[in-house]
Predict the structure.
Amino acid sequence: MFKRFVPFAMLPLAITSVGVVANELNPDVSVTLDGYYKQNDTALSHREQGFGLGHTELSLSSPIDDLFSGRLTAVFEEHDGESEVLIEEAYLQTNGLPYALNVRAGRFLSQVGYLNGRHMHEDDFVERPAAYRAMLGSHYYDTGVRLNALMPTPFFWQVGAEAFAGDQLTEGEEDIGVYTVNTRFGGDISLSQSWQLGLSWLRNRHAKLAETGDGSHDHDHEEDHDHSHGAGYTGENLYIADVVWKWSPNGNNREQQLTLSGEYLYADELNQFAASDDTNEGWYVSGVYQFAPQWSAGVRYGEVDLQEAHGDHFHNQTLDETDVMLSWSRSHFSTVRLQYTHQEATGFSNADNTVMVQYVMSLGAHGAHGF
Amino acid sequence: MTLLLMVSALPAQAQLRVFACEPEWAALVRELAPDAELTTATSYLQDPHYIEARPSLIAAVRRADIAVCTGASLEAGWLPMLLQRASNPDIQPGRPGLFFAADHARLHAPHDHVDRSMGDVHPEGNPHVHLAPDELPDIARALADRLGEIEPGASAAIQGRYIRWRGHWSRMRAEWREKAKELEGHSVVVQHSSFQYLLRWLGVETAVDLEPKPGLPPSASHLSQLLAEPNLGKASAILIASHQDPQPAEWLSEHTGIRVVVVPGTVTGEGPTETLGGLISEIIRQIESAASGVSHGGL
C-alpha cells in the first residue's frame, strides 16, 4: 500500500482518523474564529457591546494509539482589553473498552444537560440561554474524570458519572469539589423524527462555603464577577432535565431540519445562609428551523429566577429573555448570524435589548458533531 | 483472537449483527450473509455526507459485530462520533469490525493537494464507489473475507454466496457493456459526483455540474452562468439523485428543454432497484430512454 504524505492542514473533514488518514502522524488542527458586533450591553452576558471576539479556539486532536485519543483546546478571550488564554479541554479518551465503557480524564466539558457538553461554536444562538450563563457560567468545564456506560438495550440508554476538582465552578477546599450523575435516553420515532431525553444531577461541595460578599448594597460591580467564567449562581445541588426532538423530511437533514429543545435547571442549598425556599431556577425552549441547506431561522425564550448572595441574605433577580436569529452558512465551515435579543428583568441594572451580528468560521480539521 | 470470536459468536445463535452506513453495503451484506441482522444508518432519500450521530445509531453500533461503511471521508461528519459514543471495542479504526469499502477499490480523482476553497473535495478520491461495475467485485470479495473472519462458522457459506454473486455480476456487467456502446459519446448534466464512476464506465460524458463547488448547493448565479456553457446543448439529460432538491435541475430544464431524470443514488430496498445490480441496470435504462428521446427528436 502506498503511503502518501499529506500535510495535516490540507486534510479536510477527516477528524479522529477514519482509517484513511491512519498514516498521518501529526494531530488534526482546528481553529474556530468567532467575532461579533453587539449594539448594547445586556444582563448576564459574556459579550460586551461594540466589536468583539467571542470564543476563539485552537484545538489539537489525534488518536494516541489504538486505545487512547487525546484533545487539547485553548480558548483566547478578551475582556476590558486584557487577553486571556484558557485551557478548556486537555483530555484523554478511551476508544472502546470492554462492555462499552468509556473513560475520559483530564480537563473537559461536563456532560450535564444538553448544551453543556457541546462546543460553543455548534450553538444556534450567539450566547447560551440565561439559565446556562447564570448557573453554569455558559459552559462548565473542569479537571477530573468521567466514566460512561452504554447499556446493551435496543434503544439508546447511557449512564455516566463524573468527578471534578470543582474550582472552575466555585473555589473551595475539597479535592473533589463536584461530582455529577447523568443518564440519557433516545431513539427514532420514525424515519423523519428522533429524540433524546437527559437527566443530570450535579453536586457542588464547594457551594456551601462559597464567598458571599460583604453584604454591602453596592451594585456597581455586580456584573464584574460574571467575567470570571465560573457560574455566578450556584447551589449544592443542581438538577437538569433536557429534551431534544428533531424532524427532517425522510431524515434528510441536508435539505431541511427542525430542532426543538428545552431544558430546566434547578439549584438548591445555595450557601450556608440559604433557607429551604432559597433556590435558583431557570429554563428555556428553543426552536430552530433549517429551511434550506444554507439557511436557518430560530427563536428561543427563557427565564431565570435567581437569588444573588449578599453576605447573609439574598436579593431576588429575574430575567426573561427572547432571542430571534437568522443564520446563513456558505459551507459547513462558515456561518454568519443576525440575532435580536429582548430582555426584561428585575434586579439587573443592565438588562437591555440588542441586535448582534456574529460570524463563526472553522479552519482546518472539523470534528464530527453529536446529536 | 479467532478463538475468542468463535466463542463469543456461539451463544448468540451465531447470528451476525451488521451495521451498514449506507444501503448499498446493507444490500451487499444481504447477498453474502442473508441471515445477518442488519441496521442501515441511511436511506436513498438521505445525503450520506450529512447524517447525524443520533441516539438510535449509537445504540445500533453498540450492539453490532461489524460496521460496513464507504470510507474515504464520506462519513467523516458523523461516523467518528458514532464510534466514540458507542465505544464498541470491536468496531474501532484498524480493527476487523470496521470495514471500509473504499479501502478495497481504486478511487477516481485522488488529490495530492486539497483545500476548502475547492469545496468538499475528498483527498482520497471520489467516495461514491458503489456504482463502479469494475470495483464492486473486489469490494465484495474483501467483504466476504471479512465477514468470514468475524464469523468463522459461516465462512464457507459466505464464500459460496460470493462466488454465485460474482458470476451473476459478471453476466450483468456484460449486458451493461452492450448497452454502453449505444450510450457512448452522449453527455449528461449532473449534480455532485454521485454517479461519476458509472458514467465514466459507460463512456457518458459530464456536460456540466449544477454544484458550483463540490458539496455546495446550486446557486442562482451559478445556474445562470451554466446557460452559457457550450457543452450544455449536447446534453441528453439532467441526472440527479432522489435525495437532492429537484428545483435547480427543473429550473435548468425549463430554460433548456433538457429532460430531468431522477434516479435513486443507492438501492431502495424494493422493486427493480433492490440490489446494486438492479440499480445500475435501472440507471442505465433511464439514461438510455432519455438519450433515445433526444436522438429521435424528442418523441
